[in-house]
């Protein structure tokens, strides 16, 4: 067994207990502040953007953290669903929830196709195959006329919810998206803690053994892949709804890299880690220019002022630090500190 | 038959040689990737970035120091090889015990840093780099004009590929390398310093990428992002060929380049996706890859 | 033929021209303990992998209970009741000991694909799991995270997990590998106990264990069967003695 699995396992072990004790009160605090946020002067669209990425990272973690599969192609589901949602909202004027369902359906079907091919190989090949197939999806979106090429889809209308609740106001959208994200998060928590989730854990820990006990592990992995792709597509559709555009950035492999980073920073195989990771990485990307100016002022090194243009480089450095010395992520380390000896 | 459906022979041949040249790049890069994976168990995501670095160094040598193509063809791989050795000693070195996933993620981080630095220095637009004067122009082969530079790239890269193959499969040092991929302990018992061998292998693998980069510089736009999409194609090549065989990597790379060239003539829209499509088909009919070992 | 639970006909596995298993014919009698021995590289593990379809044979047939299973998937083979163990301990390291056994029991509940149910629905299996753990002497460790168990107890847990799927044929790959004397004795007792009403095929290097447990012994060498019979028959076979010459096992074999 590899050290990787050991570390993942230890952190996922503890999290359920933590959740039940202190974290109930913590979740209430977070929930209340989310519900009140628009009234205390926080810009709702930024929170929504973070929520979409948080959901994306949680869906991704369903695979890497709880099944042990590294998909390097999740941008295809996230960004692709955004395009599908945007296209139907723009050209057909359908209700928002139908658009979201279409986006999720797209993610599920694409997830089935990519997943069926990728599970034919294991380990590092799985990652390379998902990456390559997602790149193919990227090129297809780049060339198909309806996506608007390099410009992407702009001005996607939010439409009406159920045909009669207009989503024009940020506030209505805020509560709608918040509700959907919360439900999706609860669904992921349940999947992880279901009889099915137990088998996924078994596959992550020792796949040959799970096979020898009579489980068709490829089928379990495929279902996990489709589920994860669908939730990622949900996140992508919601993001297109909130921001009103869909671009190639969201389909490109660097987006797959971002979601890996969010999950890694927060803690692979923890339930709350990816959320925390998403908050940190999105905030960092938004604020990095200011941080650069601050650093330039403190240290007197002019170069820091250009930090705003170097998001990928900063991302790369965080990747390196995380892999070398921070593999359990924030939540993983937190739970270890709180429960020493485990 | 409508004559418009006929593809003009010169166009076809031109695309085929271009495809062959691309295939030679695929071969050289996937070769390095396979050699590195064999010994280090790391999938080197940074391969594309180091290929780019090789090309940018060639450009920089010319623009800042007036150092020409031929010198840079040696110096650039040397510098990148040394950078590779530093990367291996400083970073990769720590993660061999971990799951393969971490190797991929670490080299992804390195990629982002290298590309980020180059981007803040040169932006994303292409840097012009001219072929050396000896290789400008084209040769009339009777049935087509073959640009001299293309011919040179083909000869050079296939020679390097075959030399690598010979070195690994037929020499004593190569046999240590091959044994090292199976069981490092045994090689150590022959008195070989395995950590040094690993470091040098990584250095060599990325030097090969840089060599490809210099070769590519006069043909393609030298830009900080030139390796970004290439590395994913290389991954597909490696999935198709399997990483077990050196010759397999060379043949797969060349064949895919040619197929891509053909696609450019027949159905240009699919030329950027054809390699991935072939990968999908291979996964369906022969999941272990063309030259992959049984399970 | 009816007394043979498993029969293998002409089984061959080639890797790039090298025959790891070469035209092996093997019959495992129902209710017996059958041991496979042979020097390292004799093809024992490959044979195990072929029988459980972790590898595809190049040619030959595998017949289980009168049915040809040569083309089946590993998980289908397991569903027929052929359950294998592995050389390295086959446990789920970061689950509790109880959860390990429960994974095996869970399949018969038929809810393994139920994403929407709570994991607490599996608690109905706890009593049965505890009984099985009790039978291998691990009841007191039920809440321990498996990674913290001693090596011998991990192997015991592995057997418990295998028992939980109620196997018809147990394939044990070196059950005492890397164990101290005490653990070996414990595993020997355990195998003896669980063999009642079951058929066991095992690869084992420990000759005293083989001598005291096995009804039939098959000796493999370079992928082929060298000899077959009871312990006393095999130990006298000149070919077998020659094959083990210069090998550490010769002394072990000589003891008996």
From TrEMBL, chain A:
CDD domains: TM_PBP1_LivM_like. It holds the Pfam family BPD_transp_2. GO terms for molecular function: branched-chain amino acid transmembrane transporter activity. Keywords: Cell membrane, Membrane, Transmembrane, Transmembrane helix. The keyword Membrane applies. It is a multi-pass membrane protein. The chain crosses the membrane at residues 26-48, 60-86, 98-117, 124-141, 172-192, 222-246, 258-281, 288-304, 310-334. It comes from the Bacteria. It is found in: Cell inner membrane. Its main location: membrane. One of its GO terms (cellular component) is plasma membrane. The keyword Chloroplast does not apply. This is Amino acid/amide ABC transporter membrane protein 2, HAAT family. The lineage of its organism: Bacteria, Pseudomonadati, Pseudomonadota, Gammaproteobacteria, Oceanospirillales.
UniProtKB/TrEMBL annotation, chain B:
GO terms for cellular component: plasma membrane. It comes from the Bacteria. Keywords: Amino-acid transport, Cell membrane, Membrane, Transmembrane, Transmembrane helix, Transport. One of its GO terms (molecular function) is transmembrane transporter activity. One of its GO terms (biological process) is amino acid transport. It is found in: Cell inner membrane. InterPro entries: ABC_transp_permease, BCAA_transport_permease. The chain crosses the membrane at residues 33-60, 72-95, 101-118, 151-168, 194-218, 230-259, 265-285. It is a multi-pass membrane protein. Pfam families: BPD_transp_2. Belongs to the binding-protein-dependent transport system permease family. LivHM subfamily. This is Amino acid/amide ABC transporter membrane protein 1, HAAT family. It comes from Marinobacterium lutimaris.
From TrEMBL, chain C:
One of its GO terms (cellular component) is plasma membrane. Signal peptide: none annotated. GO terms for molecular function: ATP binding; ATP hydrolysis activity. Residues 6-247 form the ABC transporter domain. CDD domains: ABC_Mj1267_LivG_branched (cd03219). Keywords: ATP-binding, Nucleotide-binding, Transport. InterPro entries: AAA+_ATPase, ABC_AA/LPS_Transport, ABC_transporter-like_ATP-bd, BCA_ABC_TP_C, P-loop_NTPase. This is Amino acid/amide ABC transporter ATP-binding protein 1, HAAT family. It comes from Marinobacterium lutimaris.
